[in-house]
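Quick start: what a row looks like.
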Amino acid sequence: MAVSFRGGIHPGDRKADTKDKPIVWLSPSRLMVYPMSQHIGAPCKPIVSVGDHVNMGQKIGESDAFVSAPIHSSVSGTVVEIRPHRHPNGSMCEAVIIENDYADTLEEGIRAYDDYDKLSREEKLARVREAGIVGLGGAGFPTHIKLSPPPDKKVDCVIINGAECEPYLTSDHRVMLEMPETVLDGLDIIMDILGVDKGYVAIEENKPDAIERIKACLSDHPRATVVALKTKYPQGSEKQLIEAVTGRQVPSGGLPADVGVVVNNIDTCTAVYNAVTHCQPVMSRVVTVSGGAVNSPQNFRVRVGTPFAEVIEHAGGLKENAAKVVMGGPMMGIAQFDLSVPVTKGTSAILAFTQKEVAPKPYSPCIRCGECVRKCPMHLMPLYLNAYAQKGNLEMCLKYNIMDCIECGVCSYLCQCSNHPVQSIKIAKAKINAERRKQKGGQ
């Protein structure tokens, strides 16, 4: 029986164009761009200089901050520039630019280790940290921190997020079909690091082939269980996923570890496996390239640092009526205005839409229909949050628990008046966080 949570919506999944397309390895470009911020937390500082030769897998960015993750080169070649470059999030970010020599000379130490199962928990965790692994579902939270919860947080289970509830996205689906053993081996390593005996692979029921593929491998992974989820958005959000799988509710302002759970993405599992068994850092990720304005939708394994424009060209390029390009899913993704931006660790998809697909509805005042309240997965009141955010009344925004908003976009999707509440909420949350940082800095 498929499980779920209260609230949410079921938009058309739009996955037909790529769900049956095998992952194709993409050749890297001549110039590779590595932003020094590809994660939640402190950005890295370059540890290479212009003119240096680097190997594939060599660390090129590092930070001493606890909440951070190192950056590695995905090619061998020469550092030609270190300068600000446009980031997919729209900001300018310091980046290391490497001219690819196409030799793929591997950094020393990246190889298969047969005795990895003899490593201590601390040694496995150190390899995860050194590999620069972050949540590859798009959130970008450093994985080594997730796998080292505070002593007072008693984690007893791990959930691997195979929901992939955003429309169009099929990268996790293909990983489950093509590399199920690697996913489950990665889950085993994560459970060993955390010292738990319960692991769940949660998959939406619109992926029956993935459910069967993972189940067929469970005989070698007795601690793992497959959980079928109802097809609903945002089923893959951590708090909603935890409620669906375990029945536990993460408290307001809390984290999954507060209810004894750690959640990781499907491709993050494969990255953990590669890090612990081969000392291999994050150098590539699976990216879905789709949307009505793409000539040949595909699933690619793309090396981090490859410009969006080149990835799109490998999918046949854009149609003449292309109107918008988005990184990530259509519900939570970020619209792009510069296709020279590079694929980062958090790039799960590059979607291109026609004008018909993005045609906005005319704006009108809120009619208080209440749909956003009924379907909000966090049980908030988006219509009031939107009104107070637009007036700049941050005190009332906090009273209505604005910081609990997961910015899933359900309210904007449902709004008959084209009010786009999630945009106002994001701006208000940013102002609140800025004010809190200011107050903290003044103490």
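That is the whole record. The first helix runs from residue 121 to 130. The radius of gyration is 21 Å.
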